[in-house]
């Protein structure tokens, strides 16, 4: 089956790829008056009482994405005859203004279609189900995200990366921090014992006194004996208590009078 351009009907290359992003089998199409405000369109102006003649017919709506290798991806919103699929109108979706939601309803949109010779017109469309209108909005939102990413990749002065070059851009360059042959690392550790700093950039050695044990004749350092254990301390106290026997004292020394008129005579 030959692939054709959804907006013009012209045949596309054999390697072109198309996919349908959204489809609605029944959409009401309206001929709408020009917008009276810069804020947008009002569905009440073409769907209110006495405006039934503005409805043209009921169409099938499709959002089609067309991708051709080495070319940009385009998206079109097409209105077709539901009985035979014949193209009625197409709106190239190049920006958010191509399909604009009205101000007073979530089920109606104003679509900017492009005809033969580049002529433009604005048609109104309305969904019977609110869920279909929401699905259309989500599909167009995804298209805008893709278009924004594509503009960043094809910005002036920047080439679009493909294949291995695209992978190379994502992988950060590894930095080798290993020491090469002949290289050394000098680490300056401050407040080392035996040295103190005098002023800026000056290091002065200082003498550290040896322990109180002193040195032996052969130059070796002697150490103090270990402290006594708790058991030795208790044994020493018990020994001292037994050795300290009180000496006998005289009655006079105890404060008693043993004279002629003593109390105990």
Entry keywords:
single chain, 265 residues, alpha+beta, seven-stranded antiparallel sheet, 4 helices, elongated
Question: Can you give a write-up of this model?
Answer:
- With 265 residues, the chain is of the alpha+beta class.
- Helices cover 19% and strands 25% of the residues.
- The strands form two sheets. A seven-stranded antiparallel beta sheet has the order 4-3-2-1-7-6-5. The protein has a two-stranded antiparallel sheet with strand order 8-9.
- The longest helix has 24 residues, at 130-153.
- The radius of gyration is 51 Å and the shape is elongated.
- The protein starts with 16 loop residues before the first strand and ends in a 22-residue tail after the last helix.
What fraction of residues sit in β-strands? 15-25%
Specify the helix fraction band: 10-25%
The helix/strand series, from N terminus to C terminus, equals EHEEEEEEHHEEH
User: What class, by secondary structure content?
Assistant: alpha+beta
Distance between the termini: 152 Å
- How many helices? The count is 4
Trace the largest sheet across and list its strands: 4-3-2-1-7-6-5
Low-confidence stretches: 155-168
Can you summarize the main beta sheet? Answer: 7 strands, antiparallel
Per DSSP E runs of 2 or more residues, the count of β-strands stands at: 9
Coarse morphology: elongated
Task: Calculate the mean pLDDT score and round it.
Answer: 76
- Whole-number radius of gyration? 51 Å
Summarize the entry for a quick read:
The chain has 265 residues and is of the alpha+beta class. 19% of the residues lie in helices and 25% in strands.
């Amino acid at each position: 089956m030959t692939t054709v351009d959804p907006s013009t009907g012209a045949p596309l290359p054999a390697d072109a790829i198309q996919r349908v992003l959204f489809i609605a089998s029944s959409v009401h199409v309206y001929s709408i008056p020009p917008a009276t405000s810069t804020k947008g369109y009002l569905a009440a102006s073409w769907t209110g009482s006495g405006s039934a003649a503005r409805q043209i017919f009921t169409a099938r709506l499709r959002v089609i994405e067309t991708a051709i290798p080495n070319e940009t991806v385009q998206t079109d919103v097409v209105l077709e005859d539901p009985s035979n699929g014949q193209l009625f109108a197409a709106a190239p979706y190049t920006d958010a203004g191509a399909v604009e939601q009205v101000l007073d309803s979530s089920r109606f949109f104003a679509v900017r279609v492009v005809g033969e010779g580049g002529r433009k017109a604005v048609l109104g469309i309305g969904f019977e189900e609110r869920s279909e209108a929401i699905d259309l909005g989500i599909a167009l939102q995804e298209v805008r995200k893709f278009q924004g990413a594509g503009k960043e990749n094809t910005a002036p002065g920047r080439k679009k990366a493909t294949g291995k070059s695209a992978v190379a851009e994502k992988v950060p360059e590894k930095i080798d921090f290993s020491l090469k042959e002949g290289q050394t690392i000098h680490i300056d550790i401050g407040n080392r014992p035996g040295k103190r700093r005098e002023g800026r950039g000056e290091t002065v050695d200082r003498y550290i006194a040896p322990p109180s044990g002193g040195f032996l004749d052969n130059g070796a350092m002697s150490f103090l004996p270990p402290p006594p254990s708790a058991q030795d301390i208790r044994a020493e106290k018990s020994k001292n208590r037994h050795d300290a026997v009180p000496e006998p004292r005289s009655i006079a020394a105890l404060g008693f009078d043993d004279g002629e008129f003593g109390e105990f005579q």
